[in-house]
Design goal:
Elements lengths: L6 E3 L2 E3 L3 E3 L8 H9 L5 E2 L3 E2 H5 L3 H5 L10 E6 L3 H15 L9 E8 L4 H5 L10 H17 L6 E6 L5 H5 L4 H10 L2 E5 L13 H10 L4 E4 L5 H11 L3 E4 L1 H5 L3 H5 L9 H18 L3 H18 L17
Helix pairs in contact: 1-13, 4-6, 6-8, 13-14
Length: about 325
């Protein structure tokens, strides 16, 4: 089964079916520019906490650094209920039409029901919502209603899930009833094929993506251990998924999207790494990028160079990140 070469989400025609994941301390404007240039289908900001957006928290609002209209970008929101969701979306509209016109470049919104952070789960958000079918329907129906009336140029709304909060919920397949709700409300379902207690070193349950795809009438995006074209081919053969979300592979190398598309090597040459870092630094200076992103990517580029030279990757530990769990 050959890999898909394109993907449509709502009214958005993506340049490839390979999406870069929204990642804490990683997904700033400069980084998104790099992966977009290598063929990522759509890029996402770091996860935005709806509560902080509603309160007009400057640190939260500044994370929506959608300054480049040529890079297709969506915002991922973390919400606990439909009231908080609508308040956050209304705040996004208000900011876009007043003090933050670059928010008019937001073309998609994703809701995060997969963040494994214990803090998120404690407040009843993220994967803690997956077994609450009535609450999930209320949230996603409010989401769909907003899309029909918003003045923002939103082409797609999506939801990202895990397989449950723990092994018990995964075995109970709490994720399957959500497919019907998603079919009625959103433009795609993104499935990280692990439960929230799992580490990234544990294998994902790709067969769950196949179960979800069999019930879905909307595109299903598979996520979990896709770091090469051969990984994507195996996941697609097993599940028939419509697209792929890439996290750790994209952290290691923005050129992974070149490999996934079958048009080149998944690692950059030293010359390409130098040019990419220069471009990243230029954009970071232009947009006043937060130091946490600069720190992450400075170490990332150092590691890329070590790999390109065939050297062992040693030295500093990458900053803490949920996507490295």
């Amino acid at each position: 089964m050959s890999l898909p070469t394109s993907l449509r989400l709502g009214s958005l025609e993506l340049q490839s079916p390979f999406l870069v994941a929204p990642m804490e301390s990683v997904s700033d404007a400069g980084y998104r520019n790099l992966v977009w240039a290598q063929g990522a289908g759509i890029t996402w900001t770091e996860m935005i906490r709806a509560r902080g957006l509603v309160r007009n928290n400057k640190a939260t609002v500044d994370l929506i650094d959608t300054f480049e209209p040529g890079v297709l970008t969506g915002v991922q929101l973390l919400v606990a209920n439909e009231t908080e969701l609508l308040a956050a979306l209304q705040k996004l509209e208000a900011l876009a039409t007043s003090t933050h016109p670059h928010l008019l470049n937001v073309r998609a919104v994703d809701l995060n029901f997969g963040c494994p952070s214990p803090e998120v789960i404690r407040v009843g958000a993220g994967p803690a919502l997956l077994k609450r079918k009535a609450k999930m329907r209320a949230i996603l129906e409010a989401f769909a209603g907003w899309k029909k009336t918003t003045t923002l140029p939103i082409g797609a709304i999506t939801a990202k899930i895990r397989l449950g909060i723990n092994r018990m919920e995964q075995d109970q397949k709490v994720y399957l009833p959500l497919v019907e709700i998603a079919n009625d409300t959103v433009d795609a379902l993104i499935v990280h094929a692990r439960h929230a207690r799992q580490e990234s070193t544990e294998p994902p349950r790709w067969e769950a993506i196949a179960e979800i795809k069999a019930k879905a009438t909307i595109p299903v995006i598979g996520n979990g251990d896709v770091t090469s074209r051969s990984d994507a081919e195996r996941l697609h053969a097993l599940s028939g998924c419509d697209g792929f979300m890439i996290a750790r592979g994209a952290i290691k190398s923005p050129w992974v999207f070149r490999e996934l598309r079958g048009v080149g090597a998944g690692v950059g040459s030293l010359e390409e790494i130098d040019a990419a870092q220069q471009r990243y630094d230029e954009l970071s200076n232009r947009y006043g990028t937060k130091e946490k992103f600069r720190t992450w990517h400075a170490e990332g580029f150092r590691r890329m160079r070590a790999r390109a030279r065939g050297e062992a990757v040693t030295g500093l530990v990458m900053p803490a990140n949920e996507h490295m769990r």
